Please model this.
Amino acid sequence: MIQVQNLTKRFDDLVAVRDISFEVQRGEIFAFLGPNGAGKTTTVNMLTTLLAPTSGQIRIDGLDLVKQSNEVRKRFGIVFQDPSLDSELTALENLQLHCALYSVPREERAPRMERLLRLFELWERRKSYVKEFSGGMKRRLEIARCLLHTPKIIFLDEPTLGLDPQTRHQLWNQVRKLNSEDGVTLFLTTHYMEEAERVAHRIAVIDHGQIVALGTLDELKQRTGAETLEQAFLALTGATIREESASGKDRMRTVARLIRR
Amino acid sequence: MNCIYTLWIRQLRRYFRARSRILASIGQPLLYLLALGFGFGPIFQKAGQGSYIQFLASGVIGMTLLFTSVFSGMELIWDRQFGFLKETLVAPVPRILIMLGRTLGGATVALLQGLIVLAVCLVAGFRPVGLESIPMALIFMALIAIMFTAFGTAFASVISDFQGFQLVMNLLVMPIYFLSGAIYPLTNAPKLLAWIAAVDPLSYGVDGLRGVLTGVSHFSIATDLVVLVLLSAGFVALGGYLFSKVQV
Model:
């Protein structure tokens, strides 16, 4: 479903992703783990056409990502690390906008929006402005939104960041159901090892822009002689704390977060 | 088409929901109209140039269009910071359509603001030559709005923070306004100033608007129209190109 070959992303003086290759099978739940600044989000951004690779090749559902980007875009849905809703619009308006951008057939829009809003328990609040929503509600709305165009692949970039245990639990149940019932391929990044442990079929660990391990949970544990994924992860990536270099963009994001409060 | 309409209506919704913004953006032109219009009015008249309000109205409308348009175009920076931009960038739609939808939406918002200020000018004593001048004035106003929204989009595509926005506002937009002949006549202006005004896009917008509304213009109305159409097309093309290169 996703084929990545010798993918590299170089920013001015920094190699964020260094010559990585991997494949994600159809119907698989694939977890992409790594410490801060390891290259997770950069990889997700390249896989979702937001960032042009410096070199290497990406194929999604057999299509070349660079040459057939619009065809590729129809096939995936993404929930970004930071919210990407228009907070001045209502929940319903955000979904309508998505339907228009993805050319969802007109007669299917209303029923799909209703089904998803009910599924994520937002139907009663559909006419509320998104700026009045809590973090968890925004997340649910974003997941509902990314399902509107029935994508074959869903990218989840740290989807449970800042969510309470209830919302988290519900989210992963939905995600597993999507995978088992509709056969949706899932590519996720997370910092919570137990989440990856619970849902992922295979796990890749990335550090300093390179994949340092890739396999099933058992394979990773065996390789490192660890008992849990967290121990395996620490064995693979070391226990030192990473300083994420704060670029202007990151600082701006912090400001944006402060304003949003 | 559907995508252009959707993004256009989005800008309008946001505009009508931010009532404080509507009020705030009328305040400044109103101040210019009051302070300059009534303050300099008597001197202007003594200098033999006629009624200053008649002259200034087009300039103040032009100013409103300039500021609102550039600001609307640069809302891209906000969308980038608050994340919504990504939602449109991963959508399976050619980037140029997204840019056109945004630009038309921003331009419509600016045009609405311009119309409000035109109404304020009428209340303040401004009298156009006739009702038949209004449709042509609308065309000029729309062109100014499209041109500067695309200009704002072009800049917002290459700069990504609020500091950059301030820089554009202070180092480009303010000079564009003050050196355009919006608040003083270019006829008899010192050579250097006339020369700068001749390369200032807003000069042609304000001059065309003034020509249509009051019958007095520095360049000719036909020149103004041709220059504005060409510049609008140029800025839309540039903005579209730069926007298509935006990465997150």
